[in-house]
Amino acid sequence: MISYTVTYRAPGKVFWRKVKGVYGDGIEKSFRFLTLEDDTQIHFPINSEVIFSPNRMRVIEKNMSRDAGQPIQKV
Questions:
Q1: How many CB atoms lie under 10 A from the CB of residue 21?
Q2: Is 90 exceeded by the pLDDT of residue 19?
Q3: Which residues neighbour 2 within 8 Å (Cβ) at sequence distance 6 or greater?
Q4: 3-class secondary-structure state, position 1
Q5: β-sheet with 17-27: strand ranges across
Q6: What integer is the mean pLDDT of 4-31?
Q7: Are 31 and 44 in contact, with CB atoms under 8 Å apart?
Q8: pLDDT tens, position by position, 28-64
Q9: Dist. CA 75–CA 62, nearest whole Å
């Protein structure tokens, strides 16, 4: 399973937090969430600063290819 790293900083905080082993993420009405390899989730405020690693795009492409049943081609 391909995973990626997410670095985020909650509003008003000085330090960034790094989370490794992320394989999914999303946004709800009032929070963001990260899904980890062990199926746990981390929730943090929606207005946090977030940096995704380049592997996130590979995970998205792999999931889209699996759902479509064929390789997704970049344009």
A1: 15
A2: yes
A3: 23, 55, 58, 59, 62
A4: coil
A5: 41-45, 31-36, 17-27, 4-9, 49-52
A6: 94
A7: yes
A8: 999 999 999 999 999 999 999 999 999 998 888 888 8
A9: 16
